[in-house]
């Protein structure tokens, strides 16, 4: 029952629906995989972050079972009191080795990793130089820090230089950029940004959530991709996408990691990752360390999908990664396109404002190593059919 205190919320929700911006949440009745079950229907899944198909991998699920058998389920405490197990220590050591970093700390998610890291490194009187398209978790971390945020044009190193030169009143400074931008699939020019950071003596932080398991040697991420080991102070990542589980990580200089153990608020005040999640993450790192087969398949699938979509006349933006945005413009068209795909057996969600700017709504296609060539062909045929029906392509 509504009353005067919440009536405004119904109006706002009605406004979202009329503008084509209301988020209809689908509910899965099956494990995350190339094909999923929704409302009793089997659908081809092209909107998950399960890049390497590890979310339902038998070795991962078995590791989670073993974790429960040996350590139970709930951690029962924050990491700084009684929540750190030998599994957490092992995972952080494995990740540091995998990332070729001095040290690593894990968090409950990539989002909380950003919320922990940014306020621990900068505060009032400090400056943050942030790419204008950085992820919401970076934006929220910046707000929590209470440092002044200076935005620079997306992936524009010259504009970064300009805003740095304009500001001389500060205590500390931090440059923050996404590694792979999740809505467009483009890659930050981290090598050039690192040069600017070194030239001006500014700390550098990259959020590599969509580069983990995708870029670099064997999926070691954007720092490895550009050969910048030792030149990036902080590398934030996630265990919730390519690694197929859940959690966040921060890798980098040992002194920074130690500081986060002392002042990272989600580390100090929120319960630790669960035992099955932690054990599953350890196994995921092991799988990535053994072979590049899954990563090679991911990239082959993505290149095939992108090439064929462009040949049909779709606008796929400027993606350089397995994220392929199908640019449609208006949110209402994107939602209609997504609904028709769903009716035709392909699960690919519409993305609109506020996730992307107004007028830049899209279907964000997330390729996966879990897809086979037949899956790609089915998706292409369905996109072609719906695109012609709605007048997106001729």
Description:
It is a single chain. By secondary structure, this protein is an alpha/beta fold. It folds into two domains: 19-48 and 292-389, Aspartate Aminotransferase, domain 1, CATH 3.90.1150.10; 58-290, 3-Layer(aba) Sandwich (Aspartate Aminotransferase, domain 2). Helix content is 44%, strand content 16%. It contains 15 helices and 13 strands. The protein has helices at 7-18, 58-71, 79-83, 86-99, 110-121, 136-145, 157-166, 190-200, 222-225, 254-263, 265-269, 275-290, 293-312, 331-343, 373-389, and strands at residues 35-38, 41-45, 103-107, 127-131, 148-152, 173-178, 203-207, 234-238, 248-252, 323-329, 346-347, 350-351, 361-366. It has a seven-stranded mixed β-sheet with strand order 3-9-8-7-6-4-5, with helices on both faces. Helix 9 (222-225) links the parallel strand 7 and strand 8 (234-238). Helix 2 runs antiparallel to helix 12, helix 4 (86-99) runs parallel beside helix 12 (275-290) and helix 5 runs parallel beside helix 6. The longest helix has 20 residues, at 293-312. The model has no long low-confidence stretch (mean pLDDT 96).
Low confidence ranges = none
Report how far apart the termini are.
49 Å
Series of H and E elements = HEEHHHEHEHEHEHEHEEHHHHEHEEEH
Strand content: 15-25%
As a percent range, the share of helical residues equals 40-55%
Largest sheet: 7 strands, mixed
Secondary structure: number of strands = 13
| CATH homologous superfamily (4th level) name of the largest domain | Type I PLP-dependent aspartate aminotransferase-like (Major domain)
> What's the CATH architecture name of the largest domain?
3-Layer(aba) Sandwich
The dominant shape is: globular
CATH class bucket of the largest domain: Alpha Beta
**CATH fold label of the largest domain:** Aspartate Aminotransferase, domain 2
Strand order of the largest sheet: 3-9-8-7-6-4-5
């Amino acid at each position: 029952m509504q009353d005067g205190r919440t009536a405004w919320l119904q109006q706002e929700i009605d406004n979202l629906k009329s503008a084509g911006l209301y988020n209809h949440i689908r509910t899965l009745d099956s494990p995350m995989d190339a094909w999923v079950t929704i409302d009793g229907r089997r659908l081809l899944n092209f909107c998950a972050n399960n890049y390497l198909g590890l979310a339902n991998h038998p070795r991962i699920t078995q590791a989670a079972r073993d974790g429960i058998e040996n350590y139970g389920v709930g951690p029962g405490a924050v990491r700084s009191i009684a929540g750190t197990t030998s599994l957490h220590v092992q995972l952080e050591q494995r990740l540091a080795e995998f990332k070729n970093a001095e040290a690593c700390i894990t968090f409950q998610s990539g989002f909380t990793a950003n919320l922990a890291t940014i306020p621990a490194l900068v505060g009032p009187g400090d400056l943050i130089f942030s790419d204008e398209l950085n992820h919401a978790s970076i934006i929220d971390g910046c707000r929590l820090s209470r440092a002044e945020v200076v935005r620079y044009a997306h992936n524009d190193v010259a504009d970064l230089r300009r805003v740095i030169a304009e500001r001389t009143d500060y205590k500390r400074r931090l440059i923050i950029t996404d590694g792979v931008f999740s809505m467009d699939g483009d890659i930050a020019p981290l090598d050039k940004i690192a040069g600017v950071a070194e030239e001006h003596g500014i700390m550098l932080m990259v959020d590599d959530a969509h580069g983990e398991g995708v870029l670099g040697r064997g999926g070691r991420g954007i720092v490895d991709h550009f050969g910048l080991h030792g030149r990036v102070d902080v590398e934030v990542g996630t265990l919730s996408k390519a690694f197929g589980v859940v959690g966040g990580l921060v890798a980098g200089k040992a002194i920074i990691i130690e500081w986060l153990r002392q002042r990272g608020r989600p580390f100090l005040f929120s319960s630790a990752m669960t035992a099955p999640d932690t054990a599953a993450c350890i196994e995921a790192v092991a799988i990535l360390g053994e072979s590049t087969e899954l990563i090679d398949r991911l990239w082959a699938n993505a290149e095939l999908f992108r090439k064929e979509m462009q040949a049909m006349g779709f606008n796929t933006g400027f993606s350089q990664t397995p994220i392929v945005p199908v640019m449609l413009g208006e949110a209402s068209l994107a939602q209609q396109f997504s609904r028709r795909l769903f009716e035709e057996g392909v699960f690919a969600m519409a993305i609109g404002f506020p996730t992307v700017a107004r007028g830049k709504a899209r279907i964000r296609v997330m390729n996966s190593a879990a897809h086979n060539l037949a899956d790609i062909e089915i998706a292409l045929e369905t996109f072609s059919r719906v695109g012609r029906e709605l007048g997106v392509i001729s």
